[in-house]
Specification:
Length: 159
């Protein structure tokens, strides 16, 4: 009986690959090796962060910006019953060159999603009726149509 168990144990043992067998036999050594590797890795991580601090900062800035944008879109969708995705807005943002349609102010610090033809005037939530504008333009545009606001904007500039 015992002999049989031994056989099973042995066959299981030999079923293991050499690396695993080595590790099981040398647990202590292995733990020590892992500890050293972790320490080395931590040192490497610190080094990496130091060397790439600018890149990491930039990546974090982009992440924060993106998430701020996602939150804005989420809030907008919630308030307006729309279903714009971050991708939709990204496409608009890129196609507009990242500036307000009216005053050309960079929209890095945020934007308003504006209906080109206001909903009050029969405009839809269709993406073709949507563009991104700065807060100032959106608030002064109110329920004006795109053409009306452009005219209004021109008048202000030439005042
Ligand atoms: Zn503007």
């Amino acid at each position: 009986m015992i002999e049989g168990l031994e056989v099973i144990k042995n066959s299981a043992w030999f079923g293991l690959d050499i690396k695993t067998r080595y590790r099981l036999k040398n647990r202590e050594k292995e733990l020590e090796r892992q500890k050293k590797a972790n320490l080395l890795n931590r040192g490497y991580q610190i080094e990496y962060r130091k060397r790439n601090s600018e890149r990491i900062k930039e990546r974090r800035r982009l992440w924060n910006e993106r998430n701020k944008r996602l939150l804005q879109i989420k809030n907008y969708n919630y308030r307006n019953g729309t279903e714009f995705s971050a991708k939709d807005i990204d496409i608009l943002f890129t196609s507009q060159g990242g500036v307000c349609t009216y005053c050309r102010e960079p929209l890095m610090d945020g934007f308003h999603i504006d209906h080109i033809l206001p909903k009050k005037r029969g405009g839809t939530n269709n993406l073709t009726n949507i563009h991104l504008v700065c807060k100032r333009c959106n608030l002064s545009k109110g329920a004006k149509t795109h053409e009306e606001y452009l005219k209004y904007f021109e008048e202000i500039l030439n005042d």
